[in-house]
Amino acid sequence: MRLGIDSQKLPEFLKRGPLASLDHVKELGLGGLFFPTVLDMSPTLDKGALSEIRAKADELGLYLESGVGKINPYCSAEAPEFRAIGDGDIILGFTRMIEASAAIGCLELWISPGNFKSEYRGRLANDRFRTDVTWDEQLLAIEKNLLKLAPVARANGVHLNMETHDEITSFEILRLIEKVGDDCIGVVFDTANGLQRGEHPVFAAKRVAPYVRQTHIKDAYVGRAFGGLDFQTRPVGKGIVDFPTILPILAKANPDLNLSLEVAASVEDKPRKANPRQCIQIDDPIWRAAHPDLNAEELEVYMATVDTFEARVKSGEIPDWEAYEASQYGYPTYERQSYGYGETVTFIKNSARYIERLCAEKGIALSPSTAKRHAA
């Protein structure tokens, strides 16, 4: 295994660009870079630029991962670059992205089922609860797109890997894999996102482990609040996710899996929204009705995990939502946002140290370049 980072969360990625960001990743002692889409490497799919990025990653001994993007057609208007790269034909655009990725050896490709809009509170922040189209209709449209792209994926030897994103459940991803085929569809396992769908991270990891081909390594605070449960990204090892149980599950299923950190983005790169709270409306009848796969056993363990975590918060071991937000972002006066470059690097290093220690304890091998990072 190698431990790297998602480019969207790497501080100063847009400022530095792909090539210099690879140097930055190496300087941070990480093992690779996960580009959400190949367009993040080259917006025009320039073969020379992509080959140069591939060569630079190889020179530095870094893994390089990529993706195709959001394949829910109801989200297409919010990502016009996918249609543009196909000269107006979005399926051709996705095809070109798949072919360009395969040409530089990126054969595991991230896909996503929708968007999360943090400026809205509660379920309406999530495409699962759109009022103009049902989630079942969106899932069917996603399935149809995947069936169109499956021959392209097979012809290029790639897997289109659906993230356990904010909108979709692991049950729904497994059904998509069954319908389209595990020879070309896999999973990007985000270790924390399932919490927003009422799924326990360990239960979800066990369900999808055989199909996990990429990851987002993320931790979170989850605690009771008005309207349901608050969700807040935390440094890996400082939240509710049971990494000591999850990492061995993933390593057993795929010993060569890359672990890509997805940390809180620097406010210098992505200004904080005016309403930063993410609310899981787990007790709301509408929310519950939208999760027919959520079973009583898993929900009971989920809530017991929340109770245990809240006890640690009440003891003072872990800061609550408000205390953490104030220390990180200057909440509630957003002009005092303090979570900039330095704080983000600290977040990354603390998260990486935790994963390294845990892998060492569990006998999970990380690449030498990652393992020796903090020894120097």
Structure notes:
Helix content is 42%, strand content 15%. The protein contains 13 helices and 11 strands. Helix 4 (90-103) crosses helix 5, helix 7 packs parallel to helix 8 and helix 8 (243-253) packs across helix 12. It starts with a strand and ends in a 5-residue tail after the last helix.
Strand order of the largest sheet: 7-6-5-4-3-2-1-10
- Count of helical stretches: 13
Give the helix level as a range of percent.
40-55%
Strand percent estimate: 15-25%
Average pLDDT figure: 93
Ends: how far apart? Answer: 21 Å
Order of helices and strands: EHEHEHHEHEHEHEEEHEEHHHHH
Sheet with the most strands?
A: 8 strands, parallel
Quick summary of this structure?
With 376 residues, the protein is α/β, with parallel strands linked by helices. It has 13 helices and eleven strands.
Keywords:
alpha/beta, eight-stranded parallel β-sheet, single chain, 376 residues, 13 helices
